[in-house]
Amino acid sequence: MSTPDISQLTPSQQEALQTYTAVTDQDPIAAIPLLQRAEWNVQIAIARFFDGEPTTDPVAEARAQLPSTSARQTSNLQYESLLAGTRPSIPRIDPDDVVERVDTSSATETQYRPSFLISLLFTPFNIVYRVLTTVLSPFGFLIPSFLSRLFNRLIYQQSRPARRALPPAENTRRFIRELSEEYGENTLPFAETGFNLALDNAKKDLKFILAVLLSPSHDENHTWVRETLLSSQFKTFLDTHKDEIILWGGNVRDSEAYQVSSSLQCTKFPFAALVCQTTEAGSSNMAVIMRAAGTTTASELVGKLGTAMTSHQAQLGAARAQRMEQQASRSLRQEQDSAYERSLAQDRERARLRREQQEAAERAEREARELAQAQERKQQNIAQWKQWRAESLPDEPGADVKDAIRISIRMPSGDRVIRKFRADADLEELYAFVECYDIIKTTEDEESPETREKGIEEPLNYEHQYRFRLVSPMPRTVFELEKGGSVGERVGRGANLIVEPITEDDDEDDEDE
């Protein structure tokens, strides 16, 4: 037989295969033949995996019995046959056996006390009833339930002592404590919660709940507790099924336990009822599947419990499989959603990084372009300023000017320039001459004074900074422009000066000083 190819399955078949393997943890290649035999019905395949496949194929039998049916009738018969072959046989549940949550909102316990006249009238019946219940207790099931409840209400309720009302969980703990105080150490695994919470836990975990109701006013109560409830056989049974049964007990003198007895249709004490979830008519309700009223031996109680649990075990197993399938589907969807969210987050992060990188590149490009433009504008302003300042410099004083000062300047290029300046000329004029010397020299060489271009204006919003200082070497004296003054005041009658460039380190040293 060829190995099945998963890639050839339809999307619905692949989804069914994924759900089935998530629940059963079976190899996908080995799971495909079972799903094919189950007509790709996941529930039927899961039930066959856990319970085993039937010895005969219900589909083949249906086809053999109805060879002349139409294709549509054959398809319907196949589906019904498959369901019939996998659906467990479950006894029908009486609507009256459905168990609902009891009302525990009342803070006080309701006590019914008949009047003295009615109690006096029913005294003979009380005596007769006590005798009959003792003698005919084995035949108690023949007495209608409403008569039993009526006699209990008229006879026993009048002498029932009032008990302090407690919350449901405290009532249960009090019941367990009283049981231990009266009959010795109690090793039964009673749930220390209210009945409603125990019922909800049993429904949530798909377990059985065994409710035990006791009435201390009944004569059979003490015997049943010692010989049945606390027997080693019943304890062994509970230990064997500890993962399947939630044991809950109550005293009917407490409000909650009394309401539970009414909900479970208790007719005789002591009373035990087994409750589990049923799925009749498409609804999921908790219903009573076994009642044990009156005195029963430990063997009888264990036998009833075992029979009831066995008859409903398949139903709970199917419900657990369905829940596991739903949980697997839900987990798969969550994983897919989580993977999608992670992938989406990664895509968003990559898009964000790309956007940030693009913005950073655009910003760097824009800053570089602006810097280049600023440098270009600065160079243009410097060139224009030099042209303007060179034109605005006064001519060199002639021989007729007696206070002219002769200054020798060594330029950064190594050339030595000698020029006269008026004594009252500002020191900035000396700096401007040095700054514009290259333009002045070029202009003197190329043009005559008559042909020089005039009218160059000073650049707007520009303040020129001299990037050099004039220094007298021997002794070293720095003629800083910031101190101002005239050439005659600062330099004297003559001087040999050196043009010393200002570096960035020099600027930092000046700032530190």
What's the structural blueprint in terms of helices and strands?
Blueprint: H1 11-24, H2 28-37, H3 42-51, H4 58-65, H5 71-86, E1 98-99, H6 116-121, H7 123-135, H8 145-156, H9 168-183, H10 195-205, E2 208-214, H11 220-229, H12 232-240, E3 245-251, H13 255-263, E4 271-278, E5 285-293, H14 298-392, E6 405-410, E7 416-421, H15 427-435, H16 437-446, E8 468-472, E9 477-479, H17 487-490, E10 494-501, H18 504-512
Pfam families: UBA_4 (PF14555), UBX (PF00789)
Keywords: Coiled coil
Protein name: UBX domain-containing protein
Summarize the structure.
Residues 400-479 form the UBX domain. The protein is an alpha+beta fold and 513 residues long.
Number of domains: 4
Please give the number of β-strands.
Answer: 10
Average pLDDT, to the nearest integer?
78
Unreliable stretches (pLDDT < 50, length at least 5) are 66-90, 155-161
Total number of helices: 18
Quaternary assembly: single chain
Give the SSE order as H and E letters: HHHHHEHHHHHEHHEHEEHEEHHEEHEH
Largest sheet: 5 strands, mixed
Tell me, what's the shape? elongated
**Which secondary-structure class do the elements indicate?**
alpha+beta
Care to describe what's here?
The protein has a five-stranded mixed β-sheet. It has four domains: 81 residues, no CATH class; 217 residues, Glutaredoxin (3-Layer(aba) Sandwich); 48 residues, no CATH class; 120 residues, Phosphatidylinositol 3-kinase Catalytic Subunit, Chain A, domain 1 (Ubiquitin-like (UB roll)). It contains 18 helices and ten strands. The chain is 53% helix and 12% strand. About 6% of the residues have low confidence. With 513 residues, it is an alpha+beta fold. Helix 1 crosses helix 14. The chain starts with 10 loop residues before the first helix and ends with a helix. Strand 8 and strand 9 form a beta hairpin. It is elongated and about 160 Å long. One of its GO terms (cellular component) is endoplasmic reticulum. One of its GO terms (biological process) is ERAD pathway. InterPro entries: Thioredoxin-like_sf (IPR036249), UAS (IPR006577), UBA-like_sf (IPR009060), Ubiquitin-like_domsf (IPR029071), UBX_dom (IPR001012), UBX_domain-protein (IPR050730). This is UBX domain-containing protein.
